């Protein structure tokens, strides 16, 4: 048979990039052809094609065509002798940004390099290899290094009987992250209800397929973390609880029919009620963050001051509680003196959470006063009082 004349047809890339090709990159390789006997062919062509395809539409992003072998002037066919032949090729990807390669449930974004052998009186033979393309996203841009915070609260109850308020506030130090990075989460959860609640956080991927007036959306969890139970009347703090990003596709924001977004969901599971939830948008990029390592600690301190329900602030140098020995007896004063030590100066206590000081001053019990004056005076002084009209 004529097809048996082609013993082998292959395609190889040279210097294949592990992270994928991007706009403007050169692509080079070889087409391998092994003939079992003398072979007549009309042409050997190379095509680089690709784009987005979904059920509702198609978008072409790449179309490159090259001729690798053509008949000499005045001839119709090429005669290839038996043996191995190599045809090198090279081309450059377009300078405009390409859409990142992606495969989803309702569509995909794929790029292929294909070699086509045209033969007289025989069907064409072809071989193709996939070309991984990535649209680089730098997370160091100003829009992606800005802290993001959200606050939400919910009244928990049954029918018309309210049991209390549950408050949630969450913050991340920036919007842009890369695969393998850990997201430090700063959160405050206050449980004023009568129920036992559990805080959680998850990274959610949203796939959106658009076209012809139809939209399909898929949401899936790619990573999650769980906090401790919070009893009624208690408060919990996440001071940089980490959630690692698994290997996922970068965000796809420049395609008109397929879009891939991410967000961080911080939520509270409340038995017998809907979840209390805040969503913080994320962008999964490809160029890592080059900021300073001390940023996390600074964000943690700023976050504690941004709590909407936290009305008390810590003074720069906390004052010691007043001595009430002058108004109560020494016996009562000794009996009611606090059992915990007074806080030291701020420089020595910076390693402790700020909320600990706030809670201490907020819930400090009122001083005890005696109805009997322990130091009565023999004579009652009368101060003159004057009014000015």
From TrEMBL:
InterPro entries: Arrestin-like_C, Arrestin-like_N, Arrestin_C-like, Arrestin_domain-protein, Ig_E-set. Pfam families: Arrestin_C (PF02752), Arrestin_N (PF00339). It comes from the Eukaryota. Residues 162-289 form the Arrestin C-terminal-like domain. PANTHER family: ARRESTIN DOMAIN CONTAINING PROTEIN, ARRESTIN DOMAIN-CONTAINING PROTEIN 4. Belongs to the arrestin family. This is Arrestin domain containing 4. It comes from Ornithorhynchus anatinus (Duckbill platypus).
